[in-house]
Amino acid sequence: MRIVALVKCVPEPTATWRFADDLTLDRSAVDGRLSELDEYAIEQAARLVEAGVATEVSYLTMGPAPAVDALRKALAMGGDRAVHVLDDAIHGSDAVTTSLILATAIKRMGFDMVICGMASTDAEMSVVPVMVADRLGVPALVNAAAVRVDGSSVTVRRDTDDATEEVVATLPALISVTDRSGDPRYPSFKAIIAGKKKPIATWSLGELDIASERAGGAAAATVVRTVRPRPPRPPGTVVVDEGDAAVRLADFLVANKLL
Amino acid sequence: MNTVLVLVDHDSGAPHKSSLELLTFARRLGEPAAVVYGDADAGLVDVLGSFGAATVYAAAPGGPDEYPTTAKALLLVDLATRVAPAAVLVTADPEGKEVAARVAVRLDSGVITDAVDLRATPDGPMATQLVFAGTWLAESQVRRGTPVIAVRPNAIAPEAAPVRAVVESVPAPPHVDGPRVISRTARAASGRPALTDAAIVVAGGRGVGSAEGFGLVERLADALGGAVAGSRAATDLNWCPHELQVGQTGKTVSPELYFASGISGAIQHRAGMQSSRTIVAVNKDPKAPIFQFADFGVVGDLHVVLPALLDEISNRKG
User: Please, how many CA atoms are within 13 Å of residue B60, restricted to the half-sphere of its CB?
Assistant: First the structure.
């Protein structure tokens, strides 16, 4: 079984993010890293290899040149090879175009299962996995907390607001996994060295037969008109408990009609 | 006036509150038309009409369909092609986002997720979103195709605007072989308000220290009539059920009161609760980031402060 795991290079979550002049996230101003939520997808792929179910794991990313660092990190955790769709025309692409580029690349790579994280930690839309599945014409099982593959089908467990359910789909299929699916491994020094030797192919949009005019900010179906920082909350009161904190807390709740 | 298609979520004849919120937003953009997949009985149609749905498009599933997400998407695609709506609105929960994703691809239209506000402009709907872990507000528009917008629950109070709803039956979309649900275990009801609807949320984090300690958080929630929540640390340690996690990979809440106990307030947690009207925090670490945005903070041991507060509440209520 061949797995393609989708990964994304995102800005460091603890850094201060800025908008560029075109109101996209200024990725050049902040260090990038492999999206934390993608590490769970990489972990599941590695476990399926260890279980003897998967025979080949490839990673796919799109984004500017530094995104290759996310692929190197993924390759240190496991997997065989990676594809980086790298093209200046990609900058500013929306979710619909992103899914087109990814689905086109996945078809060319060949797959039995696509694994994604539950969301990116930058845009946080959670729509690209299902969009990719729709374009590939395969079932999508999203937000999996556990994954099991039996022969020609994949079964996931997921927790909704009011129930735990098991959902099954026939392969080929796409799944997305949550941060409850199993802690990602830390690559050993040896694995990091081995990861550096694994092949990374770089594809342009032309190689995927996607016209540059269909990608990027100019072709985006959505446009950001204005951005502004969220107004700061008015400063609050902080007290150190000297035995009277409960009374002061209760007074505060009463004064705000919360008690 | 342009139609605005609203996908209705419903359980045994009652629409979800989030769907009434969508109808309330939809009236700002045009004339709401409710889209019901499943049985549109008279009671459901009446409620939808009382929130402004002049038309109710109803599609009865052709057969037992255990995984209706794709069918709902195809239904919206068919209707959008037929009525050329000003927008398609869905709730920004996991199923709604799945529907939105498929509709946007099939219509080759732009999609906006997690909108917290919507207004009409001459160029179509303008959506407000919280971005960068909720630290910035962005206003966005769809400029190609039918705007597909997933709206966060609890972004607006549902307002009635009664009209007489006319039901139009539409054919169910063709069956698609998709995922099948093979088992479903319902969770026991807690008796507390639902987390995302609750006016008061009492949350515990790593500082609570143990599963037993989390009982204090639950007792305070019950004393205040609120819902219980946990940070990711608390849910990862199984002190609190995963579905009650607040933060980037859990729920987003905006109650009247968010009472954080033993929660440091890292950006991932803040993203899920910073819209709360009033934030109270108890933490023993005076440097905890949560004190930078709490309205009232107590630097102290929650194992001392919470029991004393429970006594104080009980005295004042008594």
Answer: 8
Domain A2-219 class, CATH top level = alpha beta
Is A131 within 8 Å of B101 when comparing Cβ atoms?
yes
Q: For residue A241, what is the nearest residue in chain B, using CA coordinates?
A: B300
Integer Cα distance of B167 and B44 in angstroms: 11
Residue B235: give the domain boundaries. Answer: 200-317
Give the mean model confidence (pLDDT) for residues B118-143: 93
Task: Give the integer Cα–Cα distance in Å for B109 and A160.
Answer: 28
Residue B192 within any structural domain of the chain:
no
> Each residue of B222-250: pLDDT tens digit?
999 999 999 999 999 999 999 999 998 89
Give the CA distances from residue B92 to residues A177, B89, B228, B237, B254, in Å, rounded to whole numbers and listed in that order.
18, 9, 22, 28, 15
List of chain A residues whose C-beta atoms are within 8 Å of the C-beta of residue B309:
245-246, 249-250
Per-residue pLDDT of A119-165, as tens digits, reads 988 888 999 999 999 999 999 999 999 999 998 999 999 988 889 99
ipTM of the complex: 0.94
Q: pLDDT tens digit string along A47-66?
A: 999 999 999 999 999 999 99
Global pTM? Answer: 0.93
Question: Domains in chain B: how many in total?
Answer: 2
Asked if A229's CB is within 8 angstroms of B98's CB, the reply is no
